[in-house]
Amino acid sequence: MLLAAGNWAYLLDLGLAFAISALILNFVLYQSKLVPRWLSAWGFIGAALVFANYLLESFGINPVEILFIPTAVQEMVFAVWLIVKGFNKESMQ
Predict the structure, then answer these.
(1) 0.85 cut: is pTM over it?
(2) Number of structural domains, the chain?
(3) Which of 13, 48, 55, 57 has its CA 20 to 30 A from that of 85?
């Protein structure tokens, strides 16, 4: 019973919380135009795939782990973008 509770805690706490926070972050970035819209849209789509992965996993369906790849690549591109270009200063005023 403790192992089952641990699995549910992993799915809900780590998985769905990360996916929902990534959805919110990319939605806010898309609306505020602090980064290019293609980058935040890419992150939103990737976060939706991660959300779908954890949702399917919570119902006992083992989805393909390839659903994490768009989010992983987007986060690396996003980090490099912020280091090289930074935020859009015109939209911050």
Answers:
(1) no
(2) 1
(3) 48
